[in-house]
């Protein structure tokens, strides 16, 4: 009888990872709805499924067009896991994730170093999920959010990652409560900024940075 312990993957499922996965699922679902509401996009989607099916069939993948469509819709498909993963990889192949990672090289290497230090892949997984989320948001048609002058000022002030005190100082604000209620909370709620430590919202080391949606808003309004 084997005394081997069950395999444990070298990572911890942290609140940040769960949060990113939930947001990715939400954005992917929204993209599916947008696609279903546009005839041209529906036709392009059908052609894409057919192209993926043909390409993978040459390599021995046995999934049908119906199964590939189901995977695209986020449905569970009974099939060899490896073939399902290959299809998922192909579906996301057109997203410029690599370009976004290139723009965040310092964070990329920092995530690798932190994962090595902790002997836990969670920091690197969280980084990659954030890059995928940012790519999805940037690639998706966006409705420009209506922001208040306070939030607009916050977005134009943030440079990289900044703490609360640094932001208040840059904005010339002394009232902590007012800053939290009129600046931070609305920007976080609209997904324009994010915490660097989402699983520790009250940490003294907490900082804030723009999300892909926030950066896109600045570009759309000629601020960056």
UniProtKB/TrEMBL annotation:
Filamentation induced by cAMP protein Fic-like C-terminal domain: residues covered: 149-211
InterPro entries: Fic-like_C (IPR049514), Fido-like_dom_sf (IPR036597)
Domain of life where this protein originates: Bacteria
Signal peptide span: none
Protein name: Filamentation induced by cAMP protein Fic-like C-terminal domain-containing protein
Pfam families recorded: Fic-like_C
Organism whose genome encodes this protein: Syntrophotalea carbinolica (strain DSM 2380 / NBRC 103641 / GraBd1) (Pelobacter carbinolicus)
């Amino acid at each position: 009888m084997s005394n081997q312990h069950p395999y444990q993957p070298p990572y911890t499922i942290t609140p940040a990872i769960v949060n990113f996965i939930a947001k990715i699922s939400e954005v992917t679902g929204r993209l599916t709805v947008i696609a279903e509401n546009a005839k041209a996009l529906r036709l392009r989607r059908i052609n894409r499924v057919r192209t993926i099916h043909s390409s993978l069939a040459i390599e021995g993948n046995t999934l049908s067009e119906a199964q590939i469509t189901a995977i695209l819709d986020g449905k569970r498909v009974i099939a060899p896991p490896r073939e399902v993963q290959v299809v998922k990889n192909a579906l996301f192949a057109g997203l410029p994730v690599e370009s976004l990672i290139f723009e965040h090289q310092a964070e990329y290497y920092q995530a690798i170093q932190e994962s090595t230090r902790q002997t836990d892949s969670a920091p690197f997984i969280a980084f990659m999920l954030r890059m995928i989320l940012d790519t999805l948001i940037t690639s998706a048609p966006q409705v420009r959010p209506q922001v208040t002058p306070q939030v607009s000022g916050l977005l134009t002030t943030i440079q990289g990652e900044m703490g609360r005190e640094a932001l208040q100082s840059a904005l010339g604000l002394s009232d902590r409560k007012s800053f939290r209620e009129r600046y931070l909370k609305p920007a976080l709620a609209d997904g324009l900024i994010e915490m660097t430590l989402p699983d520790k919202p009250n940490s003294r080391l907490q900082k804030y940075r723009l999300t892909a949606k926030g950066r896109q808003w600045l570009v759309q309004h000629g601020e960056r």
